[in-house]
Amino acid sequence: MDLNKVKRIETHAHSNYSNIRLLDSINRPRDMILTANSLGLSGICLTDHECLCGIPEWLKLEKELKEKELIPKDFKCGIGNEIYLIDERKKKQSYYHFILIAKDTIGFRQLCELSSKSWYNSYYDRGMERVPTLKSELYEIINKSPGHVIATTACIAGEAAQTIFSLTEAEKKKDEYLQQEARGHLNNFLDFCQNLFGEDFYIEVAPSTNKDQVLFNKRIINVAKAFGIKMIYGTDAHYLLKKDRYVHKAYLNSKEGEREVDSFYEFAHLMDNNEAFEYLSKSYDEEKFIELCNNSMEIYNKISEYEIFRNPIIPEVDVINYQKRSFCQIDTPTLRKLFNSDNIQERYWVNECWNSMVKLGLDKKEEYIKRLETEADIIATVGEKIGDCVFKYFNTFKHFIDLFWECGSIVGPGRGSSVCFLSDQLLGITQLDPIKWNLAEWRFLNKERIELPDIDIDLAPSKRPLILKRIREERGELKVLQVATFGTEGTKSAILTACRGYRSDEYPDGIDNDTAQYIASLIPQERGFLWSLDDVTKGNIEKDRKPIATFNEEMNKYPGLLDIIYGIDGLVNKRSQHASGVILYNNDPWETGAVMRSPNGDLTTQFSLHMAEACGK
Description:
Blueprint: E1 9-10, H1 29-38, E2 43-46, H2 55-67, E3 76-86, E4 96-102, H3 105-120, E5 123-125, E6 128-130, E7 133-134, H4 135-144, E8 149-152, H5 159-172, H6 176-197, E9 201-205, H7 211-227, E10 230-233, H8 245-253, H9 273-280, H10 286-302, H11 333-339, H12 344-359, H13 366-386, H14 391-406, H15 422-426, H16 464-475, E11 480-488, H17 491-501, H18 513-521, E12 525-526, E13 529-530, H19 533-538, H20 549-557, H21 561-568, E14 572-584, E15 595-597, E16 603-605, H22 609-614
Parallel strand pairs: 1-2, 2-3, 3-7, 8-9, 9-10
Antiparallel strand pairs: 3-4, 4-8, 5-6, 11-14, 12-13, 15-16
């Protein structure tokens, strides 16, 4: 039988976002989806190592690839997380791997809350940053709304497999006490999982000839049968295909220190069913293998559409509750409506603007009144179209401008198009009179461009820590997050990394640093930008660029090096934080995203700025 005709979804796969704490995967999300489809899979789940950073990109790619008809409409891109599940946070312990897959949007939010708690309580142990999840936290969050998350035992670094190995060692030693202890541990763990997840809990095995994996594959069958738990197989893909193994191996070798890159990762790539059965046939017959695939399709059918993208949520602040009142100025229907609005934010905006008009002696000048009416109409129209009150955006901005001054920071008079709005000046957001300087309001905001306004301001850098402290005191620590950024392997960086990881008989310890630096120096730079690898190796007629002969000659000296460089170029390899970007939340951040810490310990979003905006912030 052609096993590739049997349907299956891949439930365990890593992207380059798994690299944000430790170099781990060379998979790019787009390539993962396309490769899974080419192998005949019905879907693939993204399960990075304790991070959800790639999820917005993942789901956007799914939509894009379906619109371009590059994957079938019924192909599913599941979202999940490979967490580290423990009983208590303490040092010098095992951090057991465990897979969680969201069935729907509620499940996604549960993943976000769990991940946020893990990162918030992160710590260092044995030189590594640890972000474990407590079983008590998992139980509490899943039990708030059960039935929205699928769980699996993950790889042989999971608690089930490690306990099986302990049991096997105890049996070899004929130690009855240790045998009973291991059996009790395994029973308790599986009981916990079944009680929490019910029929949404699965045991994962993996296609491999690694002796430990084969041992687990064989021994777990009777355990699964005894507990009535269904089994699936997952490839734990860290690179795309078998042929890419040497690139992945080089990438891991590039990191200083001893790292097991052969036995653990030898089979950690996407596979079609025929290849997978070749390795699993040491443990299962064809009938059992088909059962594993069918069980995975049970997971496929449980995954529904994720709705994580939405219009931005505007941060709110408490404002003065101005009473409703009439407004007698003629030809100002929007202002009259705002003065008598049921919305406290709208009444605050118009009263604050008008109070400033009176204070500045502008309330009798028709040109200024008409301008304020025009701006109010624009703001109201934009708000109607995006489904939110945009007036509160300006109220919130005014509130924080006032706070900045209170913190002792000088605030710039205005930068960019925000100075084109009279109301911005009236609220103290900017300090220029747009009518005096003949600045058109449409340059800042207009009815044709339906998006939230963008206001840039200048603050005293020395006051930034105090300002953030004051905002967190006011709104709560987790409702003020700095924006995450992700570093990538640039052209030169990819060369240096590839050279460190390169291995051959002639270069068993990699290419020396002086040579690597020389090769990297051959990459031309124009206007501050490095040439792409394609331009360097092949040239670019449109840009009048010829191939760099010296670089190609160097590549010929090291067979396979160029492929490694290409495989590494552009990979996400670290996380950081935006120099000034901060996101404010009205509610818990895991309603629309997740929290993590930057390497310096600051709380940040798990999504980049644009992805966080797409999810509503």
